[in-house]
Sequence to fold (416 residues):
Amino acid sequence: MAKATNQRTKSILLYIGVLAGVGSLVYFKYTNFFITSFISAFEKIHIIINIHTINIALPLGISFYTFRTLSYLFDINKEKFKPTSDIVVFFSFVAFFPCLLAGPIDKAQTLIPQLLKKREFNYEKAVDAMRQILYGLFKKIVIADNLAQVTNNIFDNYHHLPGSTLALGVFYYSIEMYTDFSGYSDMAIGFARLIGFDITKNFNFPFFSQSIAEYWRKWHMSLTKWLTEYLFTPLSIALRDYGKMGLILAIIINLTVIGIWHGANWTFVLFGLLHGIYFIPLILKGTMNKNKKIDPDKLLPSFSEFVNMLKTFILVNFAFIFFRSDTVSQAFSIIRRICSISLIQFPQNSKPYFIPVIIVFLLVEWIQRNKQHVLQIENIKQGSLRWGIYFVLFVTILIFVSAGDQTNNGFIYVKF
Fold:
């Protein structure tokens, strides 16, 4: 594409590259989804089709490195970036090991220049990287893995549990998802910085967002930015003649693609569609791109800020019901039980002692919300206090690792 002398040739090469990337992703990730959906559609009209699914091994990290290579093609086509002729540098960019399994999704402009230049050890960066790795490991091992044991039990036995337990399980799952995925991102960013690379920040304390638009600007930020640049912006330009309705359609398509990207299941489609619908009031009011910034020096949010954060958090929790459920019918069954009189019953088998732990965790995140990560505490002058914090976190991690079953506690986003 870079050597092509006319736009037609460049476009043809781009289409070939996109077809190869998207085609591979569709084959490996969605073939069986299309087959089962096709069979189910005909079964509803009492026609039996003798087609079987295919035993396909899903390549590790395919969703992430596919998006990384697609952005490489798009940017070369737009002449935003010159392709590298160094095959080792190229494949190091595609399969950069800290980010391979679950992101962040770095663009070529971010990573390739760093791969081309000589790197030198930086003590201050390495120390900060170790802090971020430690905190990411704490979030994963101590919070996410322990919540997973509870949420798995709740969602596996939803038929027999009251609405109060299910509602608490959904709340737990939101925190589990955040600590699991942001914990991975913290470790990936930390490991990259430890060896001399600065990669994209992926989370910016999203549960303190005051609108769903702000939430998506702070949650899985690299994916949001990718789809905003390469899907939403071209769509919104193509549909601009339709005014706000065109913008609504573009955002719904964008969020639905985000849902489908997560997995081959109708639950993910509805998850993305629901988030797209959440944007409609913001678009109609013209506030989608407005950030309601909270004074960084404020100890506590105002009442209206807290209400906005709570409303956004509730919307996010509701959508996570579809994300976590195995089937659409399971998701709606859980919603019906949450909306029943059993919501006022005392929760069963839900380990409510996790609630104060989560509250403390969120308070610490709130206090450190203006930092790059929570353990950015180099401003604490007392070295003994800093090392005391590190020691407590490290020992807590060791205790929970030795006490828990780590065999089934892989990172959630690895399977996406």
Observations:
- Residues 7-116 form one domain.
